[in-house]
């Protein structure tokens, strides 16, 4: 069985045509992307690296990593999102290879292939996030980097990421997130250890409403990033 929720896939597929509109439903991703891109590049030095972006959607992160000189492959299970990603890649002239395939299936086909694996804003949308973490560990080369981002599960994250972002500020469509699927850093660390990855750094992401910008912080109570390496 595919490790995907049909309802979640349909939700993002229905919005696929809006993926590259910086003022539409994916505006927060556009605003967040430079922060996460710089953080990934600071660790992994993307230029010349072979990179896999799992759950790439319309390709916002995939294209930006390719723009820094990485050889990027993006995978997703939404054919609509991948169609948008392919079209935008042609329009921008930034080459990215896209494929509709599950992370676990690609891991079986291409183990130890990638210098860098990213899985951003995806774990909280799948039934079995631990299986995705395991697939990431299989796909990356020994010594390579794996990067995750997801949402913490606590009262504050519910108030900020669900009530605040979806209902008050209307930064995201209502129903974007299911609070029950949010993942505490301790839980993700357990998945990481079980997959035999080494945790390197965890950073929080905060939103500054006055400047309307995202920034890295030590506050992991809502959004957070997790950097890992596969042992040599």
Automatic annotation (TrEMBL):
Superkingdom of the source species: Bacteria
EC identifiers of the protein: 2.1.1.222, 2.1.1.64
Record flagged with keyword Cell inner membrane: no
GO terms under biological process: methylation
Residue sites binding S-adenosyl-L-methionine per the record: 36, 55, 76, 120
UniProtKB keywords: Methyltransferase, S-adenosyl-L-methionine, Transferase, Ubiquinone biosynthesis
InterPro entries: SAM-dependent_MTases_sf, UbiG_MeTrfase
Biological or metabolic pathway of the protein: Cofactor biosynthesis; ubiquinone biosynthesis
Catalysed reactions listed for this entry: a 3-demethylubiquinol + S-adenosyl-L-methionine = a ubiquinol + S-adenosyl-L-homocysteine + H(+); a 3-(all-trans-polyprenyl)benzene-1,2-diol + S-adenosyl-L-methionine = a 2-methoxy-6-(all-trans-polyprenyl)phenol + S-adenosyl-L-homocysteine + H(+)
Gene Ontology molecular function terms on file: 2-polyprenyl-6-hydroxyphenol methylase activity; 3-demethylubiquinol 3-O-methyltransferase activity; polyprenyldihydroxybenzoate methyltransferase activity
Matches recorded under NCBIfam families: UbiG
Function: O-methyltransferase that catalyzes the 2 O-methylation steps in the ubiquinone biosynthetic pathway.
Family of the protein in this entry: Belongs to the methyltransferase superfamily. UbiG/COQ3 family.
Protein name: Ubiquinone biosynthesis O-methyltransferase
Species classification: Bacteria, Pseudomonadati, Pseudomonadota, Betaproteobacteria, Burkholderiales
């Amino acid at each position: 069985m595919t490790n995907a929720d049909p309802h979640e896939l349909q939700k993002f597929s229905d919005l696929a045509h809006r993926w590259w509109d910086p003022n539409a439903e994916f505006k927060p991703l556009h605003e967040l992307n430079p922060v996460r891109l710089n953080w990934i590049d600071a660790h992994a030095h993307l230029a010349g690296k072979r990179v896999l972006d799992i759950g790439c959607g319309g390709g916002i992160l995939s294209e930006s990593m390719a723009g820094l000189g990485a050889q990027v492959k993006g995978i997703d299970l939404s054919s609509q999102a991948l169609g948008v990603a392919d079209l935008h890649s042609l329009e921008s002239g930034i080459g990215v290879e896209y494929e509709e395939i599950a992370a676990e299936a690609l891991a079986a086909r291409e183990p130890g292939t990638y210098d860098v694996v990213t899985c951003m804003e995806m774990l909280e949308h799948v039934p079995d996030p631990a299986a995705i973490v395991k697939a990431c560990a299989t796909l990356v080369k020994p010594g390579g980097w794996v990067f995750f981002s997801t949402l913490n599960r606590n009262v504050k994250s519910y108030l900020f990421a669900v009530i605040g972002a979806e209902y008050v500020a209307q930064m995201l469509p209502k129903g974007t997130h299911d609070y029950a699927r949010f993942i505490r850093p301790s839980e993700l660390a357990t998945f990481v250890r079980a997959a035999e990855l080494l945790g390197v750094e965890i950073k929080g992401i905060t939103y500054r409403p006055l400047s309307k910008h995202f920034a890295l912080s030590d506050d992991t109570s809502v959004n957070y990033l997790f950097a890992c390496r596969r042992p040599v």
